[in-house]
Amino acid sequence: MTRLLPIVAAACLLGCLLWGFLEARADPIVRRADIALPDWPAGAPPLRLVLLSDLHAGNLAVTPARLGRVVAQVNALRPDLILIAGDFTPGSETIDAATASATLAPLKRLRARLGVVAVPGNHDHWTGLGAVRTALDAAGVTLLANQAAVRGPLAIAAVDDDYSEHARTAPTLAAARRLPGAKLVLSHSPDIAPLLPPDFPLLLAGHTHCGQVVIPFYGSLDPVSRYQDRYRCGVIREGARRVIVTAGIGGSLPFRLNAPPDLWLLALGPASGR
């Protein structure tokens, strides 16, 4: 019996590794939420928004074929607008524009009448934001960093990544405040949430991978947040503010445990009484 213990332990470890690899490559779960926003423009219809994040394209978890499947899955939801909360690349080694463009080419097939808007993540800064920007331009994705833009009924404050210390939250919110439309914030890390004033009631973010490796009765092994698990995953309500954190699609390591990939389909519209 004692001799069998190492074999059983090795089998359990291999099983866990295989499970984590398969979970990391699984098609993302589509999570849904209906959100009413103040200052919705009078007469503007509701809007279907897809939130993606953390593609980390280019490793075993996110091959071009898998990214293509995700694109098809998103298009099948018929979104009006697609927002991507950063981390298009894995790791931290510098990449060139040609490599980034080839890796992210499937994004050209994304379809939404109001387009695709993205912000950078920490890995995009680490691997080379210039190359990522070139690749996204070629794919028809608008990359905004500490900038504001109008898309349909929305005024989007696109805040650069807080984790890599590129966020300029206050001036970006000020720029969005000058634009017409219901206000929302798009950023890679959710850690800017406590900085948001009441007139920005919705933050869409990624970065955490919903913990990536989550141990039952313990939590995530590496929260990658100064707030630990406070903004780990899903819908977080803080008074009138909602923070939505997606698990994302990939990861620098092709391994997930109890944190499956996901994307969000949000139905946005006016607050009641409008």
Give a summary of the structure in a few sentences:
It holds the Pfam family Metallophos. This protein has 274 residues and is an alpha/beta fold. The chain has helices at residues 4-24, 64-76, 97-103, 122-127, 129-139, 169-177; strands at 29-37, 47-52, 81-84, 116-118, 142-143, 147-151, 154-159, 182-187, 202-205, 214-215, 219-220, 234-238, 241-245, 262-270.
Describe the structure in your own words.
The protein has 274 residues and is an alpha/beta fold. The protein has one domain (4-270): Metallo-dependent phosphatases (Purple Acid Phosphatase, chain A, domain 2), CATH 3.60.21.10. It is built from six helices and 14 strands. The strands form three sheets. It has a six-stranded mixed sheet with strand order 1-14-2-3-4-5, with helices on one face. Strands 6-7-8-9-13-12 form a six-stranded mixed sheet, with helices on one face. The chain has a two-stranded antiparallel sheet with strand order 10-11. It is globular, with a radius of gyration of 19 Å. The termini are far apart.
Keywords:
single chain, 274 residues, alpha/beta, Purple Acid Phosphatase, chain A, domain 2, six-stranded mixed beta sheet, 6 helices, 25% strand, hydrolase, Phosphohydrolase, Metallophosphoesterase_sf, metal ion binding, Calcineurin-like_PHP
